Amino acid sequence: MARISVVFNGKIAKNGLAPIRMSICHKGKTAYINLGINIPPEQWNGCYDEWVIGKKAWAINQSIECRLAQAQADLSRMENIHLMSVTDIKDALLHIEPKKKSRKLTNELSLNMVDLSRLTKIDKDGYIRYKRAKTGRAYCIKVEPEAVELFNIPSHYLFEV
After folding, report:
1. Burial level of 130, CB count in 10 A (0-12/13-18/19+)?
2. Where are the domains positioned within the chain?
């Protein structure tokens, strides 16, 4: 089970303040989320419910407590947490969409416009085979079955440029 706690980052910035972070420990690995709260080091107390002492401490402690409670509530709602990595948990707590595992034709494979415009039909086995215009190197790209429908065009080339 993942554990969430509030920690003080002792690295002091040029303005004399240091950030307060939330740490997520899961399967022996730790990830940190910056809470966006910076305080002078002498104001850090570190005790639960009274992390900060001194000027404006009540408001800062309330903000930290609210963020911690929200993170713990989100954590308790997560399914299959035992299968997740600490970065997946961090992304879920920050409400970042998970990265898509599927490859995009132009972004992941870095096809330039010349190569893209010269692509011909998809083979029967679901692959596009072509030679790179600049280097002459042969490439073979697997096209997912869902994407094959997008390329059913009556012309010789996949894209009309």
Report:
1. middle
2. 3-93, 101-161
